[in-house]
Amino acid sequence: MDVMIQLQRQLREHSAFLRKEGYLDDQFEQLQKLQDESSPDFVVEVVSIFFDDSEKLLNNLAKALEQKAVDFKQVDAHVHQFKGSSASIGAMRVKNVCIEFRNYCEAQNIEECLTCMQKLQFEYSVLKNQLEYLFRLEQQIRAAGV
Amino acid sequence: MASDTDYDSDGMRDNGNGGSSEGNGRRRRHPMMTWRNNLRALVVDNGRICRIMESGLLDAYGVEVEAVGTGEAAVELIASGETFDLIVIEMFLPFMSGPETARTIREMGITSKILGIAPMYWEKDAQEFLAAGIDEFLEKPFTPELFVPFLREIDNQK
Asked: Mind telling me which residue stretches traverse the membrane in this protein (chain A) (predicted)?
């Protein structure tokens, strides 16, 4: 019983932390509301797809920026996709870096684009760790409740 | 803005006509809103996550949803006789763009409400999309706050 209470407290605190620090915004709650008894793992499934897509996008962005003659339209297309997917699940910090990135694509500023690329990799990586921890807590709670 | 990276090929069923659609299949037992009429929506978005969230949210709010990843697939679906009360189109689709898709749908005589959406845009993008025949242009994410007023309007007019 104590373990359950402690786990639930950790979950509440971690969720509040993610909101307060701006990792997640209201849209994540919209995602959570889509989970129901007929789709009990909806959030984890959607976030897994987000992780997959994000890693492909980051790879493609890195390759595009390595080219001798950078195709900024292509870079912009990838950043658009990333902004769309991150905004759709409430990944606020990642989304905000995409907004900044987009402006530098428009200006064809390769140095700032590379800086944004690093920021994006960092924010994505931190978010992934934070969400994986959140899901581990939820799983532990489910296991403790059985 | 065509991209050679296909982020949406997974989960797309080919219906043999060159287009593909994801029928929602799962209808929510307890939608968050109910309507006087049966409302149908078509989501046209090449981004997998966006498409899942847009259709998921519409479904949660009591709308029957079809979702496709290209403008071509949307046009095919409508040409096959499917009717929708609401059509949601991403601006930056590969191949047939969002504005081209909207223009083609309007040229087919479709008068349904069409919402254009984009992750980010310049003013000229919005103007281009509106000139192509959409009713409203929205920035993602696609939230209930944004789409419920349109559903209400559609339901009242049916």
From this structure: none
